[in-house]
Design a protein that fits this description.
Length: 62
């Protein structure tokens, strides 16, 4: 995002499964172009980080 978009984050049900859908719907409805990046794992705990770290190391060794 390279500019302020008024209303983009208004009335979003944070921490729900609808955040992505509502945000992308808003952008599409207002004809605001956007790109999607690859989905990554959520890292909330040390165990999560250890899994991500292992995958990164495997990717780098290929």
């Amino acid at each position: 995002m390279n500019r302020f978009i008024s209303g983009l984050f208004y009335d979003i049900p944070w921490s729900s499964a609808e955040v992505f859908n509502q945000t992308s719907d808003y952008l599409s409805t207002h004809q605001i172009p956007f790109d999607l990046l690859p989905t990554l794992s959520d890292v909330d705990y040390l165990e999560d980080w250890m899994e991500v770290k292992e995958r990164l190391l495997q990717t780098q060794s290929k």
